[in-house]
């Protein structure tokens, strides 16, 4: 199978951790449809770790915990499919999963056949307790080949956390998405750390194998399995905007049965989701790179990029049909707002001599602005916030 756009869905881990069961999955499936998430493009319902018994059966097959899932996984799959959605499950490349349940090492072909029999559509494949004598790429190739021969299209979500130079070999495995980060938690510090690390690693993202920046914490509001401080509406909005812009899969982690209107506003913004799902799948790039390449020999104060390495990036991405996504970010923790952020259209390939200018629509507020005197200006951008635009090239 070929995955042309980043997968969208919901995963149990961030909110529920070990507290999963059949009723929760069925309720979440209903909520995906009734809340408008399905209409917005989300389609996967994914069960994460701690779903099985501690022992395999006499044939070496994984066994769903009968107390949590009394009707088994095929029953879950049938219900999810009846709602027009897709079913995802979890395993691990090691002897054990991260929570200490049976992993798939040396059982790859048995497990792939089992998942196909249960009509699974996505496999999240973790990296705990793996044998140190085996190379990471081989561990993922083993499951990739088994899935490719199981008789069913199953999206392969490789969750190796970027370890052992994943970015250099992951496309060899045929994986459709790959985790490039450690685990996210529900805090601004976690969002900022993951965001800034990924801004510098976009060359390994793209069609067919999308860079997974971990699941979303939008709407967790300090509650759940990976809860910490929680975030403001603006911080969650920045989080969602960046994940969308950088072509990351969008896997919701909050309790979708009980979302606030603010959470729904973020997660169902179709214009922002369209940036993520754009068919071109172009690699994002810095549109204010000059701020990170100041000559260190100019004298005077320290170079600006050393004081604020990626605190105020402007990130661009070409879209199908000639539009451009532009996002102005303020990651700064020291300033209440950044007074003046500027990018020049020639940084995205539009010189003044073209006779064209940019018309920009803010995808969160609907405000429309135009480039002026060869520049695009955003004034007084608050800390921990962003402005995400879809820019159209028009006659000057």
- Average predicted confidence as pLDDT: 92
* Total domain units: 2
| Major sheet strand order | 8-6-5-4-3-2-1-10
Tell me what portion of residues adopts beta-strand conformation. Answer: 15-25%
Largest sheet: 8 strands, parallel
Please give the alpha-carbon distance between the first and last residues. 44 Å
CATH class of the largest domain: Alpha Beta
Order of helices and strands: EHHHEHEHEHEHEEHEEHEHHEHEEEEEEE
Spans where pLDDT lies below 50 across 5 or more residues: 290-309
SS elements, strand count: 18
Number of helices: 12
Q: Briefly note the CATH topology name of the largest domain.
A: TIM Barrel
* Class by alpha and beta content: alpha/beta
Assigned CATH architecture of the largest domain:
Alpha-Beta Barrel
Tell the overall outline: globular
Secondary structure layout:
Layout: E1 8-11, H1 13-16, H2 22-34, H3 37-40, E2 44-46, H4 72-82, E3 86-92, H5 108-117, E4 122-126, H6 136-148, E5 155-158, H7 166-169, E6 177-179, E7 186-187, H8 188-199, E8 210-212, E9 227-230, H9 233-245, E10 250-252, H10 261-267, H11 270-276, E11 285-286, H12 304-307, E12 314-318, E13 324-330, E14 337-343, E15 356-362, E16 368-370, E17 376-382, E18 385-395
Parallel strand pairs: 1-2, 1-10, 2-3, 3-4, 4-5, 5-6, 6-8, 7-9
Antiparallel strand pairs: 11-12, 12-13, 13-18, 14-17, 15-16, 15-18
Question: Overview of this structure, please?
Answer:
The chain is of the alpha/beta class and 396 residues long. The chain has two domains: 8-276, Alpha-Beta Barrel (TIM Barrel); 285-395, Golgi alpha-mannosidase II (Immunoglobulin-like), CATH 2.60.40.1180. 26% of the residues lie in helices and 22% in strands. It contains twelve helices and 18 strands. It has helices at residues 13-16, 22-34, 37-40, 72-82, 108-117, 136-148, 166-169, 188-199, 233-245, 261-267, 270-276, 304-307; strands at residues 8-11, 44-46, 86-92, 122-126, 155-158, 177-179, 186-187, 210-212, 227-230, 250-252, 285-286, 314-318, 324-330, 337-343, 356-362, 368-370, 376-382, 385-395. An eight-stranded parallel beta sheet has the order 8-6-5-4-3-2-1-10. Helix 7 (166-169) links the parallel strand 5 and strand 6 (177-179). Helix 5 runs parallel beside helix 6 (136-148), helix 8 packs parallel to helix 9 (233-245) and helix 9 (233-245) runs parallel beside helix 11 (270-276). The longest helix has 13 residues, at 22-34. It starts with 7 loop residues before the first strand and ends with a strand. The relative contact order is 0.11. Residues 290-309 have low confidence and may be disordered.
């Amino acid at each position: 199978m070929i995955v042309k756009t980043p997968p969208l869905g919901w995963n149990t881990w961030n909110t529920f951790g070990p507290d999963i069961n059949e009723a929760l999955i069925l309720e979440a499936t209903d909520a995906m449809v009734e809340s408008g998430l399905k209409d917005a493009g989300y389609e996967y319902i994914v069960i994460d770790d701690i779903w099985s018994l501690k022992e395999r059966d006499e044939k070496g097959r994984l066994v769903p915990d009968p107390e949590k899932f009394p009707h088994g996984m095929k029953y879950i799959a049938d219900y999810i499919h009846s709602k027009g959605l897709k079913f995802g499950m979890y395993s691990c490349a090691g002897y054990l999963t991260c929570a200490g349940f049976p992993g798939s090492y040396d059982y790859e072909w048995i497990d792939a056949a089992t998942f196909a029999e249960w009509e699974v559509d996505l496999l999240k494949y973790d990296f705990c307790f793996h044998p140190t004598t085996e190379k990471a790429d081989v561990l993922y190739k083993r499951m990739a080949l088994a899935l490719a021969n199981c008789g069913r299209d199953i999206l392969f979500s490789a969750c190796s956390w970027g370890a052992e130079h994943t970015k250099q070999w992951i496309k060899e495995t045929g994986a459709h998405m790959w985790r490039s980060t450690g685990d996210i938690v529900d805090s601004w510090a976690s969002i900022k750390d993951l965001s800034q690390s990924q801004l510098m690693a976009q060359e390994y993202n793209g069609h067919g194998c999308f860079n997974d920046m971990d699941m979303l914490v939008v709407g967790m509001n300090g509650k759940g399995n990976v809860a910490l401080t929680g975030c403001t509406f603006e911080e969650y909005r920045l989080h969602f905007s960046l994940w969308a812009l950088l072509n990351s899969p969008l896997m919701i982690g909050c309790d979708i049965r009980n979302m606030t209107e603010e959470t729904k506003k973020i997660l169902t913004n179709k214009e922002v989701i369209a940036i993520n799902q754009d068919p071109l799948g172009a690699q994002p790039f810095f549109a204010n790179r000059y701020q990170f390449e100041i000559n260190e020999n100019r004298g005077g104060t320290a170079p600006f990029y050393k004081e604020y390495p990626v605190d105020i990036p402007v990130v661009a991405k070409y879209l199908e049909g000639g539009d451009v996504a532009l996002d102005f970010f303020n990651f700064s923790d020291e300033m209440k707002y950044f007074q003046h952020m500027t990018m020049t259209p020639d940084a995205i390939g539009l010189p003044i001599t073209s006779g064209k200018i940019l018309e920009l629509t803010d995808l969160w507020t609907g405000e429309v602005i135009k480039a002026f005197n060869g520049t695009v200006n955003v004034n007084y951008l608050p800390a921990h916030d962003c402005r995400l635009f879809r820019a159209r090239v028009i006659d000057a």
